[in-house]
Design a protein that fits this description.
It is a single chain. The protein is an alpha/beta fold and about 500 residues long. The longest helix is centred in the N-terminal third of the chain and has 17 residues, at about 30-50.
């Protein structure tokens, strides 16, 4: 049996050809069989344009049926695809294109407030051959499936997901078909997924979590609703009409659905809901209890990152106490350990650095120089978070080592913003920090020492400067603080903990 992403999907399409696979908010439905046939036609169309095994393709698309079709068609051909979330700006996309040597960039024409087509052609002019541009608003190319070469049979590195971190540039995280399948399998087991479930993907499918979610659908045989964005007053009605049983995302998604329930206290807005799932952002225990009481379903939350879409996760068999106060236990195929600062194992209940290894893991970064710092000598990935393991094996996150901010589930590199802001003539020095935020998890705050000129600067000017630098909107500071001097230790390192305490 094929071990590729496509091979597992094709097996599901064979077994469940007439069962629904995908819905969208506009009323479109595709069965597994119809989805397979469409993917093969698109694969043939792409092959006619020179895309084949090993071809590098970058795509930046919203969560749509055509996006899933493209993902599967590329995997059918054995191409290496580089998904980029739509919120990333020109600066990040240019870096991805240059680092991967992409020969094709796939974007919508206009989406929301951005002309992706115009930006793609600007990038094409700047980067030059062999980069080509495909606009999906004109439709995906189709051809005769009989012209296709045989599909690859074995798993390989065919996925490069980009994420922000402590480096100024995005990091390319490499995954195999097998690692995404293992991630999807963990959801099937822990969340008791079955064919009569109806899922929902309201987060950017370009995340590694998008591939994980699709893998869980192919294994368990359930369909999912694709939403380009979660607009609770509209999206909840679509979910209700389709009988959605699973709402996925993170804490901001849980809160949005809960708020919609509170707007309509006379009815259960999602009467078929069995669970809410997600990770990547802090989950306040009170939010769990509010959702459990008012929506009638538990939150199964976990720790995940681009390097491993699922590390720990709450399970349907966990108690409410475990689900509310922990990030769950290690998922099947993963190991988690806590290490002290002297690289010795921490005791149960003792805080230390979270490290991980297992079958859901990345095989490394596109930049080999990042691997040495990220992995220990015995092959464990340094997760960048502080935590402790309870006697029941469940993980509690207590802090963060890496200088990143997690805003609505997206990583924001403090260093990237600091390097850009230091180029502003009114900025003498700067520290970018994350502050607790009920809606976003964390909000981005820039703390600035004024330049010797003493000229005042305000938040709109700061945001405009960063937009002109091509920075993604999701990374823009939402708070500005101006200080006489940044607090520093004896080695002149900025004391960010002190700034967080002062401005939270």
């Amino acid at each position: 049996m094929s071990t590729t992403f496509w091979g597992r999907f094709a097996a599901r399409a064979q077994a469940s050809a007439q069962s629904p696979a995908l819905f969208d908010e506009h009323g479109k439905t595709l069965t597994f069989g119809a989805l397979r046939d469409r993917c093969e036609r698109v694969a043939a169309g792409l092959h006619e344009q020179g895309i084949g095994e090993g071809s590098r393709v970058t795509w930046q698309l919203p969560t749509r049926i055509d996006t899933v079709v493209l993902m599967l068609a590329l995997n059918r051909l054995g191409a290496v695809q580089n998904p980029v979330i739509p919120l990333y700006g020109k600066r990040e996309v240019a870096f991805v294109l240059r680092q991967t040597g992409a020969q094709l960039l796939v974007v919508p024409g206009r989406w929301r407030d951005t002309d992706f087509g115009a930006r793609a052609h600007e990038l094409q002019d700047e980067i030059g051959p062999p980069l080509q541009v495909l606009l999906t608003d004109d439709g995906l190319p189709e051809g005769d499936p009989r012209s296709l070469p045989p599909a690859p049979e074995t798993s390989a590195m065919r996925w490069v997901f980009y994420t922000s971190g402590t480096t100024a540039d995005p990091k390319g995280v490499c995954h195999t078909d097998d690692s995404l399948h293992a991630a999807g399998h963990s959801l099937v087991v822990l969340h008791d997924l079955r064919p009569d479930d109806v899922g929902s993907i309201a987060f950017p499918i370009a995340h590694a979590g998008g591939g994980q979610y699709l893998a869980s659908m192919f294994e368990a045989g359930f369909p999912a609703l694709l939403l380009e964005r979660l607009v609770p007053t509209q999206s909840v009605d679509v979910m209700r009409g389709l009988g959605v049983t699973i709402v996925g995302g993170g804490s901001s998604f849980y809160q949005a659905v809960l708020d919609e329930q509170r707007r309509r206290p006379d009815i259960r807005v999602l009467p078929t809901l069995r669970k809410l799932t997600g990770g990547g952002t802090p989950k306040p225990p009170q939010l769990f209890f509010d959702v459990r009481r008012e929506l009638g379903a538990p939150i199964l939350h976990g720790l995940g990152m681009t390097e491993s879409p699922c590390i720990t996760m709450g399970a349907m068999t966990d108690t409410d106490e475990q689900l509310a106060f922990t990030e769950g236990a290690a998922v099947p195929g993963m190991e988690v350990r806590i290490m002290r600062g002297d690289d010795t194992p921490a005791d149960v209940g003792e805080e230390g650095e979270i490290q991980l290894r297992g079958t859901l893991m990345t095989v490394g970064y596109t930049d080999p120089a990042l691997n040495e710092a990220a992995f220990t000598s015995d092959g464990w990935l340094r997760g960048g978070d502080l935590g402790r393991l309870r006697p029941d094996g469940h993980l509690v996150i207590t802090g963060r080592i890496k200088d990143i901010i997690i805003r609505k589930g997206e990583n924001v590199s403090a260093r990237e913003l600091e390097e850009l802001l230091l180029a502003h003539p009114k900025v003498g020095d700067v520290a970018v920090i994350g502050l607790p935020d009920g809606d976003r998890g964390e909000r981005v705050c820039a703390v600035i020492e004024s330049a010797p000129t003493g000229l005042p600067i305000d938040l709109p000017e700061l945001q405009g400067f960063l937009r002109e630098a091509g920075l993604a909107v999701l990374k823009l500071p939402e708070q500005l603080e101006v200080v006489d001097a940044l607090p520093r230790n004896a080695l002149s390192k900025v004391l960010k903990a002190e700034l967080r305490a002062r401005f939270s």
